[in-house]
């Protein structure tokens, strides 16, 4: 059912009283304890909300997650034998991914961190150069505890630290040789930003001028087709290998795949075994990935287009609330995910966001708020199926309700 225009009414007074009690109790906690309590309240508010702009997979219950497999029979014959060490349904998933990306073959991995380490290690062996050129904000540099160097003996070389995609001139001008160029598409920590297709083509050509291979960190590549104006296989054709995730966009239980030439994939599977990634049975994860490819992948373009409606409504809502300095980044989202920046202390904003959800039953911000600097707060907006039910008017009303509570928190 489509959400009606306008804002949501407040819950009964008992809920508001509970939120006030939570707030008073939180003020007496340490910073770490306060943030943990706030996280718990955000999850409870998410589960109890009558309407949500988005709800992270991590906030869903086991029952909700298991329900995904109710659709498994639609994507795979459940009377087939269960997989063992990467055969059966896992091989079917690999073939599906290879076809979607226009590559000869693909290898399934239990995690993206393992998938990319193994891939870049194999390329280093073939190019005889362990240097991997990548962005300073790329996932391996920020979120993997130096795994490329500590585990796989690779040497990351930063092309740029600017909050944008690397340019062809930067790749050409890198002052040392490198065996592989890794491009994260989109670059999450810069705001889920993508280059234009022409810029991406130029960057890959620049890498090959340097006699390097090109690897796409495409954890969220699935939702890039609208921005690029190209199908997945045409985008993937620019790279020698492409990594994709099954849970970030497709709501799967986990897992990843790397697609590329058959000879590379054969080598990936050998190293997958050595890294401990050839798990005895992985049918729940593989089935959930196939369900995601069947059900979520076709919806992603709609999510991206509606994210642009949501982003504009957020700007309009904050301007109408007297907060024109709120910033949506990118101004026109490149994917169905983007950033929202506010010039306030992150803990203050987070408290206001949770109070808004607790008191109105409307969850506008499902993800945590980070503090990129003093007096600044940033969160990520993720538009999925639930977000399609929100009109621009719904967003503007929810922003007005949130802004009231933010003003109260700031003046408290």
From TrEMBL:
Residues 85-316 form the Aromatic amino acid beta-eliminating lyase/threonine aldolase domain. Residues 1-45 are annotated as: Disordered. SUPFAM superfamilies: PLP-dependent transferases. One of its GO terms (molecular function) is lyase activity. The keyword Lyase applies. It comes from the Bacteria. Belongs to the threonine aldolase family. This is Beta-eliminating lyase-related protein.
